[in-house]
Amino acid sequence: MSQFFYIHEENPQPRLISQAVNILKQGGVIAYPTDSGYALGCLIGNKDAMTRITRIRKIEHDHHFSLMVRDMSELATYARVDNQAFRLLKSCTPGPYTFIFKATKEVPRRLQSEKKKTIGIRVPSNVIALALLEELDEPLMSTSLVMPNEDYAESDPENIRDMLEHQVDCIIHGGYLAQNPTSVIDMSDGIEVIREGVGDISIFQ
What residue numbers bound the domain in which 120 lies? Predict the structure, then answer.
C-alpha cells in the first residue's frame, strides 16, 4: 500500500519532501502535483518503475515521457537548446509548458522519440514539484496522470488514492488542482505549436 503525504501547497514540509525523494531513490513511483494536474514520476534510470507507469496508464513503451527539471541551468544537460530558444524559454518558465528538443547523450535512448531522438522537457511552477526536484538534485521522469479512457490528468488526490494506492509507492496530496493541460511547443527543428493548453502560445507564433 502506498504512503499518502499531505504536503502544504505553498510551504512544503521538508521532512515529507525528503521522504518522498527517498522513495524515488529506492526505486519507487510517486503521484505528485504539477501545474497541469497530477503526474506520475520516477528516476530517469529506473526501467522497472517506467514499466509500472506504462501499465498503470495502459500506454506503450514508446510513449513520450517528459523530464521535469528544476530550472534552465539543468535544461542544457538534457536538451540541445540554441540561443533563440533559450531566450524564449527564459521568458516563460517556470510554467505550464512542455518543450520538445533534440535530446543530448545524457538522456537514455528509451526515453527519446524513436524517429526524431527528441525529449519533452518541463520546468514546473508548482511549489511542491520544485521542492521535490531541488531535494532530488536531478530530473524526474514524468508523465501526466491520465487514466485509460480519460482526456485530462487527475486533479483529485483522494480519487488517485482510491485508484492507485496498491500500484504506486507514494501519493502526495498537494491540493485539488485544475485540469489544465500544458501547451506543447516543438523546438527541435524550428518552432511549432503542437498543442495549445493553458500556457500562452502567442510568443511562439
Answer: 3-204
pLDDT tens profile 18-44: 999 999 999 999 999 999 899 999 999
- Single-letter code of the amino acid located at 155: S
Give the amino acid at 120.
G
What is the number of domains present in the chain? Answer: 1
pLDDT digits (tens, 9 = 90+) for 2-19: 999 999 999 999 999 999
| 115 sits in which H/E element | none
Residues 6+ apart with CB under 8 A from 121: 66, 67, 69, 75, 78, 79, 98, 99, 100, 101
Burial of 151-190, coded b for 16+ CB within 10 Å and e otherwise, reads eebbbebeebbebbeeebbbbbbbbebebbbbbbbbbbee
Indicate which CATH number applies to the domain containing 148. Answer: 3.90.870.10
Do 63 and 56 form a contact (C-beta atoms < 8 A)?
A: no
How many helices, marked H, and strands, marked E, lie in the chain?
6, 10
Residue whose grid cell is 504512503: 3
Contact 173, 157 (CB under 8 A): yes
Angle (deg, nearest 10), helices 14-25 and 127-136: 60
Question: CA–CA separation, 173 vs 181, rounded Å?
Answer: 19
